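Dear Dr. L.,

I hope this message finds you well. Following up on our conversation about the binding site, I have prepared a predicted three-dimensional model of the protein together with magnesium ion. For your records, I am including the exact sequence and ligand specification that went into the calculation, followed by the structure tokens. Please feel free to forward this to your student if that is useful.
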Amino acid sequence: MERGADLARAVAVLGGGGLVAFPTETVYGLGADASSDAAVARIFAAKGRPRAHPLIVHLADGARLDDWAIEIPEAARRLARAAWPGPLTMILRKGPRVAAVTTGGAQTVGLRVPAHPVAQALLRGFGGGIAAPSANRFGAVSPTTADHVAGDLGDAVDYLLDGGACQVGVESTIVDLSRGRPVLLRPGGLAREEIELITGPLGVPDAEAPAAPGTLASHYAPRAEVVAVAPDEVPAAVAGVRGMRGSAAKIAVLAPATAFAAWPDLRVHAYRLPDDVAGMARALYAALRDLDAAGIDVVIAALPPAVGLGEAVGDRLRRAAGPRRDPS
Ligand code: TXA
Ligand code: MG
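The resulting structure of the complex is given below.
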């Protein structure tokens, strides 16, 4: 795998049907030409991702939205103006430029305009849409640094564009605008409250909502077992895990730094996250990777209140804690 900050090289690789891993403000993406079935097929192979899981198409701006989607509702245009570039993905009815493989056969497409300057430069240099899932192996924790990508995907990537650490740290918020009332499919880097200022209250997915497979019960999962609980339940959870696993188990508590003052006697590996929820989101995935690297068996994670970015952080912790029985 080639790695560096050479934009012209990255653009050439995309143009040749290759795979470029690149930074966005949320997480690193594994990109290919969104109009090429053959190029996009390589993404699924590299990630070990089932073909039916649709990919997000990244665009340089919202100006060419009509090339990529059809029957665009007014709420989507308002959201695009208010939130792009930024950590918002909109599900719309798919337009003719989207390769069939990109959407896993679905008639809808996820579109997003990322805010990261390197992603912006890559999209402008390339000129087309870039289909990109998070640049990790299927089901694993998303990468927020170039080193994470190299460790997960290595030689499966043709060029790794290194843009440092991602600022938001959790994936984009996904809103379905393809079927009437806007529905929140995945909480993420843009808080629900900000979106609802534009759209009014978001609906919850019903039986006919397009499945967003990234919302499988177990996803975003490290190797360690994760237990997600309210902060005041942390001591009881530690005692419970010790009782089940015995004193040899390596237990970590993942919580905001100031929360540890309430637990002077826990005798666990303490992983201190920033106290503000944006900092927590930014640090979360690197923390889960660090804890795996430290050989931790069980991570007891304190859930933040479900407001603002706390909704996304809580969602990812619950999924990391979910049953490990998804296809992989
Ligand atoms: O922040 C992000 O969204 C990152 C960066 C790289 O942009 N991308 C990302 O992609 O998280 P991925 O593939 O790891 O997660 C995208 C989620 C998946 O759960 C996928 O199923 C869902 O979006 N999705 C994509 N297109 C969809 C569609 N047409 N209908 C329903 N869900 C869709
Ligand atoms: Mg992903």
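In brief: The chain has a mean pLDDT of 94.

With kind regards,
A. P.
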